[in-house]
From TrEMBL:
PANTHER family given in the database record: REGULATOR OF RPOS (PTHR48111), TRANSCRIPTIONAL REGULATORY PROTEIN CUSR-RELATED (PTHR48111:SF41)
DNA-binding annotation, residue ranges on this chain: 124-222
Residue(s) carrying 4-aspartylphosphate: D51
GO molecular function annotations of the record: phosphorelay response regulator activity; transcription cis-regulatory region binding
Name of this protein: Two-component system copper resistance phosphate regulon response regulator CusR
Domain of life: Bacteria
Location of the Response regulatory domain: 2-115
GO cellular component: cytosol; protein-DNA complex
CDD domains: REC_OmpR_CusR-like, trans_reg_C
Length: 225
């Protein structure tokens, strides 16, 4: 895989470059947010490792700019382990959030998850429920014939619900499959993500398709009011 490491701390940057290169990855390195954003948007990368505390433009700013242009997987790296920071990163569109210091073996394992996903052939499957169409292969969503513009995380969440159409999925399963990580029990990031998805998929329409099963999770289904 071709990776981009945006890290201003020289020791950490060298550690990441050496370790990832030794495991067969091609690694480019940027030392500030501005350079990192330029490389990320001008090159083709399979994954981006993005530090939060960066000169020029911080990790939050870089992530917001990236998500406005592309869907390349982004792993946030930070010395802050507050729940609020992790939630902020995930809500801005990060695919994962690793707290420093992290085990290199864990980083490799999470990168391998991305690699396995990329190796899977795309299947042109379209899930339809009522007037909602979710096209996983083309990453398109329509309702009542109208295209819905979803963020990367919103699409991942809707696609997961669509692939389990009619099945109740727990917050834990959503967290593991849409964010590749576990969440603290007091974190409401899943509920916030569902609310934002509903604002686009359900709120403008009479029939509601995303249902809350109290104490269990969520289900995508066409049900009578």
């Amino acid at each position: 895989m071709r990776l981009l490491s945006i890290e201003d701390e020289p020791t950490t940057a060298a550690y990441l470059h050496k370790g990832l290169t030794e495991h067969g990855h091609v690694v480019d390195t940027a030392q500030d947010g501005i350079e990192g954003l330029h490389l990320a948007t001008s090159g083709r990368y399979d994954l981006i490792l993005l530090d939060v505390s960066l000169p020029g433009a911080n990790g939050w700013q870089v992530l917001e700019s990236l998500r406005a242009r592309q869907h390349t997987p982004v792993f946030m790296l930070s010395g802050h382990d507050q729940v609020e920071d992790r939630v902020r990163g995930l809500q801005l569109g990060a695919d994962d959030y690793l707290v420093k210091p992290f085990a290199f073996a864990e980083l490799l394992a999470r990168i391998q998850v991305v690699a396995r996903r990329a190796a899977q052939p795309a299947t042109p499957s379209v899930v339809q429920v009522a007037d909602l169409e979710v096209d996983s292969a083309r990453r398109l969503v329509r309702r009542a014939g109208k295209h819905l513009a979803l963020t990367t995380k919103e699409f991942a969440l809707l696609d997961y619900l669509a692939r389990h159409l009619g099945q109740v999925v727990s917050r834990t399963l959503i967290a593991e499959n849409c964010w590749d990580m576990h969440f603290d029990s007091d974190t409401n990031v899943i509920d916030v993500a569902v609310r934002r998805l509903r604002a686009k998929v359900d709120d403008p329409f009479v029939e509601k398709l995303i249902h809350t099963i109290r104490g269990v999770g969520y289900v995508l289904d066409s049900r009578p009011a």
